[in-house]
């Protein structure tokens, strides 16, 4: 194999391998990460405190005063999430949710 072929193989092959490793790692570990997050969202937590928690962990989701919302991390493409129920501006409950 010529040095040019080896270089091109490395140039185009390495990103493909790294992308596969990245996708696999975050898919395999997503459930444990989100279960941990749901465990840290405690009943009675205020909307402001929950918002700070979302910013700190870089989670996506909108927090209503009343109702339910899904908090998820972008790395799991929304498949693994935490279903949070809000009542009067405070967390009522938080449970793990798998959307598949």
List the helices and strands and how they pair.
Blueprint lengths: L2 H38 L6 H11 L9 E6 L7 E8 L2 E9 L2
Antiparallel strand pairs: 1-2, 2-3
Describe the structure.
It is built from 2 helices and 3 strands; from the N terminus they run ααβββ. It is of the alpha+beta class and 100 residues long.
Termini separation (Å)? 45 Å
Write down the domain tally. Answer: 1
What general outline do the C-alpha atoms trace? elongated
How do the helices and strands follow one another from N- to C-terminus?
A: HHEEE
**Poorly predicted spans:** none
Percentage beta strand: 15-25%
Write down how many β-strands occur, each being a DSSP E stretch of 2 or more residues: 3
Radius of gyration of CA atoms, rounded to a whole number: 19 Å
* Biggest beta sheet attributes: 3 strands, antiparallel
**Total helical elements:** 2
- Which structural class do you get from the secondary structure elements? alpha+beta
Query: Order of strands across the biggest sheet?
Result: 1-2-3
Mean pLDDT: 89
Helix content: 40-55%
């Amino acid at each position: 194999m010529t040095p040019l072929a080896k270089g091109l193989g490395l140039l185009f092959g390495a990103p493909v391998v790294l992308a596969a490793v990245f996708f696999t790692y975050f898919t395999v570990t997503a459930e444990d990460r989100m279960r941990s997050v749901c465990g840290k969202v405690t009943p009675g937590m205020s909307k402001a405190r929950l918002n700070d928690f979302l910013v700190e962990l870089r989670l996506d989701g909108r927090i209503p005063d009343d109702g339910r919302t899904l908090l998820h991390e972008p790395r799991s493409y929304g498949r693994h999430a935490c279903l949070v129920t809000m009542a009067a501006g405070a967390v009522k409950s938080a449970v793990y949710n798998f959307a598949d």
